[in-house]
Design brief:
alpha/beta, 8-stranded mixed sheet, globular, 265 residues
Length: 265
């Protein structure tokens, strides 16, 4: 039985090793949509870096962005905020984690731009809506929305940072990472790829058993477990490979595209 909705992570899953969508992947996704199956991108990225990818895929592709904090629609563009931090909670998280990660740089994502300290540096994904600030916590109360606090350390592994942060945080939050070296992502309590996908499917009358999901990193785990069928790409984090119902090809070898083709066949 074909799923009614297919959800997929982007980096390390749908995209290739150069963070691009290959022509074969575009063709496979368009075939899925033509078959009447909803196709949703589910990513830690903000909407502004997802929009060009959604345009490549064609049709009215939607995305659940910011680790389950925003529903982004691109034709026309509209953002629906599902979860957000209060400025006070975001400031408390930064203040609590700064002594724990003294070498790290911090940033705050609003959904429309990211405010960052010099020490945070430039990420691997091109983003023109970046605002450098000398006082991240000082400017936080002026931000229209806050969906994530980001911490980047070039001296630590992301897995270790998740454990350390969970041990000291006093603000209830969802702590995860999506594979970036030493990049910690902190979202509001209840925000995850799974909760956002469940929220979206409830609005569409789609059951979890009618959903297939693809992912590669720990922040994808809740989504893969929630979906009726959870796929891990061959390059996935060990915990994701263990939890997945099925394993498909490597992301650099168009593993998701091959799986979509097989699904339709």
């Amino acid at each position: 039985m074909l799923p009614r909705l297919i959800a997929t992570d982007l980096d390390g899953t749908l995209l290739d090793h150069e963070r691009r969508i290959t022509p074969r992947t575009v063709e496979a996704v368009r075939a899925v949509v033509a078959a009447g199956i909803e196709f949703v991108l589910v990513t830690a990225r903000p909407p502004r870096t997802v929009a060009p990818l959604a345009e490549q895929l064609g049709g009215r592709i939607e995305a659940l962005c910011g680790n389950g904090t925003i529903l982004a629609e691109f034709a026309p563009e509209r953002l629906t905020f599902i979860h957000r931090f209060t400025p006070g909670d975001a400031v408390a998280i930064v203040d609590r984690l700064r002594p724990l990660f003294p070498e790290a740089g911090f940033a705050i994502e609003t959904g429309t731009e990211v405010y960052f300290e010099t020490g945070f540096g430039v990420g691997s994904v091109s983003d023109e809506r970046r605002v450098l600030t000398d006082s991240l916590t000082g400017i936080a109360p002026q931000m229209p929305t806050i969906i994530k606090v980001l911490v980047r350390s070039r001296e630590r592994s992301a897995d270790a940072m998740v454990e350390q942060a969970n041990a000291v945080l006093t603000v209830e939050a969802e702590v995860s990472h999506s594979g970036g070296r030493g990049l910690l992502e902190i979202a509001p309590l209840g925000a995850s790829k799974a909760s956002a996908l469940e929220w979206l499917c409830a609005r569409r009358g789609i059951a979890a058993s009618e959903v297939a999901a693809f992912g590669d990193m720990p922040n994808d785990l809740p989504m893969l477990r929630w979906a009726g069928l959870g796929y891990a790409v061959a390059n996935a984090h060990g915990t994701v490979l263990e939890a997945a119902d099925r394993v498909v090809g490597h992301h650099a070898e168009e593993g998701v595209a091959l799986a979509l083709e097989a699904l339709l066949a």
